[in-house]
Amino acid sequence: MKGFLLAASLAFMVSIFGTPLAIRFFIRHGYGQFIRDDGPTSHHTKRGTPTMGGVVIIFATLIGYFGSRLIMSRSVTASGILILFLMSGLGFVGFLDDWLKVSKQRSMGLRARSKIFGQAIVAIAFAILGQHFPDDHGLTPISSHLSIVRDTSLKLSTVLVVIWVLVMVTAESNGVNLTDGLDGLATGASVMTFGAFVLIGSWEFGQGCLVAPGPKCYEVRDPLDVAIVAASLMGACFGFLWWNASPAKIFMGDTGSLALGGALAGLAIASRTELLLLLLGGLYLIISLSVIVQVGFFKLTRGRRILRMAPLQHHFELLGWGEVTIVIRFWIIAGMCVGSGLGLFYAAWVTG
């Protein structure tokens, strides 16, 4: 418990006090958000708001994790380092995208193929490295078995594991990226989802086969450290939300959204809750599906639309809903998804 509180507190303090420093730095150098002309007209007032705030989230998370490990004289683990690598690597891809936007003063940064390629390189490296570094019991950070709330009997080949991890990482990072369209929406939802992984990791540690051997015990490498990483991410997002809530003083940009999405995928993979992430991150799934349905219907019907605008949150804006109303109601949906996911995780343990 001390480790969770320390990691979350350190990350929170760095984030809440470091973000205003970043805001001043970005304003001084003119690193402001460029707003799409075809988006909701209410967003035009946000033009010039500092972006790339995800740099603060990443830095605060790293300080929270490594600082807590240092203070408590605990060594880092392969699982923790790999998740942080995935987060930082995708954050760098997002940073390049944001940098091109602010330097060229356009709404498009990296080309879609270039962004996907960058995400793929980081995800593949994570997938390959994660199948190495076994502990004393042969457990590696990434299992070769497909998991729901724990590993199933379905075993994947090394190549299929890499492909599966690639799909998860790109889908989740792009899902968070699509969600990050309103002030505080993705940040607040991420706080709840990372909080869920703190509970999952700590429960898996307490019911691990080394601590509580039995038919229902969990075989997960470094579950406690996975929870520490999640706590650091939760604290970093909480501190950033103070400045990112409406009216936002700073945006996380693709730097933050890609990093957070990658971290969520990494936590699910390392904690053996891969398919449970669909429910825990249900808001990201809903918003991603709204884009897929909109684009698919548009192409099939040669120009007709189901929604007034995608992603889903912009549809409600064009219906006249206030931004704060949309954000709060979407947070409620995110909370319901997280609560349902945790309920399913616990129910699976109770029933064995």
Based on the model shown, name its key terms.
single chain, 352 residues, mainly alpha, 66% helix, 2% strand
Structural write-up:
The protein is an all-alpha fold. It has one domain. Helices cover 66% and strands 2% of the residues. It is built from twelve helices and two strands; from the N terminus they run H-H-H-H-E-E-H-H-H-H-H-H-H-H. A two-stranded antiparallel ribbon has the order 1-2. Helix 3 packs antiparallel against helix 4, helix 5 packs across helix 10 and helix 6 runs antiparallel to helix 7. The radius of gyration is 20 Å and the shape is globular. The model has no long low-confidence stretch (mean pLDDT 92).
Gist of the model:
The protein has one domain (2-351). It has twelve helices and two strands; from the N terminus they run ααααββαααααααα. The protein has helices at residues 2-28, 54-71, 78-104, 112-130, 158-179, 185-206, 223-244, 253-270, 277-280, 282-300, 312-318, 323-351, and strands at 145-147, 151-155.
Q: Biggest β-sheet: count, sense, barrel? A: 2 strands, antiparallel
Helices and strands, in N-to-C order?
HHHHEEHHHHHHHH
The DSSP helix count reads: 12
What is the averaged pLDDT score? Answer: 92
Work out the count of structural domains: 1
Tell me the overall shape: globular
| SS content category | mainly alpha
The low-confidence runs, each spanning 5 or more residues with pLDDT under 50, are none
Number of strands: 2
Rg over CA atoms, rounded to whole Å, is 20 Å
Identify the strand order in the major beta sheet.
1-2
CA-CA gap between termini: 26 Å
Portion of residues in beta strands equals under 5%
Helicity range: 55-70%
